[in-house]
Amino acid sequence: MPFDPSLDNGPELLARAARAAGARPDLTQGGGGNVSVKVGAELMLVKASGSQLKDLTPTSGYALVNYGNIKRRICAGPGGESEFSDYICAQARPVKGVKPAPPSIETGFHALLNTLVVHTHSVYANILNMSAEGHALGRKLFPNAEFLSYKAPGPQLCTAVNERALPRGPQVFFLANHGLVAAHAGVEGALELNERVNETIRRQLRLPAYPAVEPARGLSAHNASALARYGRAFMLENVLSPDQALYCSPEALDGRAGPAENEVLTALFYILDCMAGLKLTPRFLTRSEVAYFDTMKSGRYSRK
Ligand SMILES: [Zn+2]
After folding, report:
1. 1 C-alpha to center of ligand 1: Å?
2. What is the set of domains in the chain, with CATH numbers?
3. Which residues are placed with Cβ below 5 angstroms of ligand 1, an ion?
4. How far is the CA of 268 from the centre of ligand 1 (A)?
5. No. of H helices and E strands in the chain?
6. What pTM did the predictor assign?
7. CA of 25: how far to CAs of 69, 194, 214, in Å?
8. How far is the CA of 179 from the centre of ligand 1 (A)?
9. What is the mean pLDDT of each run of 10 residues along the chain (304 residues)?
10. From ligand 1's centre to the CA of 231, what distance in Å?
11. Which helix (H) or strand (E) holds 266?
């Protein structure tokens, strides 16, 4: 019998977490970020691949997976990139009245953590995640958090999270050159934990207010002026994150930019400006780390 969302409060909780995490461009940009809620011993609702957090409702924008199987698979050694991704997709289960959709490419690490997981590309956490000195600084602010060095999203990241994951208890992960993960027993707890981390970084580092991201046709005025300061070549040659590799193409920088590209660029410029102000050294992805995304641009990861 398929899962019936009207008989369980999981979809409501998931939508609440998605709205809170997805409504702010300083926390998620474009299709980035995802949330999940475990609804039993083996089943988990997770944002669907290709949809945006802010569009998730109790009846759309998510998938149901057997997370028990995914967790066991990661523990046994997740295998190669496409094999692992195919396995995750094969764990999708039907939901009554909800259009089937593939689960997010980042479903793997959600399976390893507590009941409610909020994963964002918070610009505040990413100042720490994307600088050479950031994780040492972060350890002083958050002695109980986990700080992981850069791993490509997919089986490598899942294996690294698995080494530190607690199936119970609140937990925070800082993922280098990527984002923040907050896991908790409930939706309020996870959102509060997420907010507390962001607020602490903003306050302790005395960060400036995040600029408003104006809807624009082409590059927004804010992004065009920041791009003129940093230079097109600099932005193409120095990649801080998977989002930059996937969204900031030469075409986007030349003006073929929609809301997602503008959100990602505003986030990158904010992070770069803050790092310069704090005298932190940006930790750019290596050529081989960037090359990984070339093969994925038209494939799975672009649809996260
Ligand atoms: Zn992510």
Report:
1. 32
2. 5-204 (3.40.225.10), 221-303 (no CATH)
3. 179
4. 15
5. 14, 8
6. 0.95
7. 33, 15, 11
8. 6
9. 90 97 94 94 95 94 97 94 94 94 94 97 98 98 98 94 92 98 97 98 98 85 96 97 94 94 97 98 96 70 46
10. 26
11. helix 259-278
